[in-house]
Amino acid sequence: MWSVLALLLALSGGAMSLDKLNMCMDAKHHKTEPGPEGQLYQQCSPWRDNACCTANTSAEAHDDASYLYNFNWNHCGIMSKECKKHFIQDTCFYECSPHLGPWIQPVDQSWRKERILDVPLCKEDCETWWEDCKNDFTCKTNWHKGWDWSSGINKCPEGSKCSKWTDVFPTPKSMCEEIWSNSYIYTTYTKTSGKCMQLWFTGTNPNKKVAEYYLNNGQQQQSSALPTLLFLAVTSLSVMIH
């Protein structure tokens, strides 16, 4: 019971050992800590002032034969350039962003110990992504799992068929939320709202303020619950003593 009280008091004091506004997740190619990377390649360059990716990772993110994950974008024919640019940007966002702390969760996977979950994407980014891919083809809704990896790269699993993008993902929301196992959630927030994360931006990274908004909001909810938890703990301790 004393250990529970100590934990609650630590939480109530806002004790945090990790700066969730400036951190890198524990994953396959991420740096241990974010920092400047002046040579980030093409679409990853907006993160050059503070990045969780290296220059080499940023270059590989643009390569069809990338060693990063051996992932084959062309599993149902050649992916259009319009569509592929969004997956490159998505990779840059995932690999390079230092402001995903509020959405990082532990995961038991061989290739990473942490993942992102329910990152709120801006309406424009999700809808433009879907619009630019709507004439492409795929055979799966969840691209994280279920592939045939027997050849060393992902191929459509036996029994599946390639279908038009809009048949597999009828809406921008279905695509953004399903394709990477709920790494993202679709929002109706626009880029000017300060309440959604931007895949595409220029200049100063706007996502730090968004992460701060969600982190503060979460801490406020946690703080509001602490008095009740402390009361219950103290009451239980009093009963045990008496």
UniProtKB/TrEMBL annotation:
Signal peptide: 1-17
Gene Ontology molecular function: any one: signaling receptor activity
Keywords: Disulfide bond, Receptor, Signal
Cellular component terms per the entry's GO annotation: external side of plasma membrane
Stretches assigned to coiled coil: none
Folate receptor-like domain segment(s): 23-198
UniProt keyword annotation of Cytoplasm present: no
Family recorded in the similarity comment: Belongs to the folate receptor family.
Protein name: Folate receptor
Organism: Pundamilia nyererei
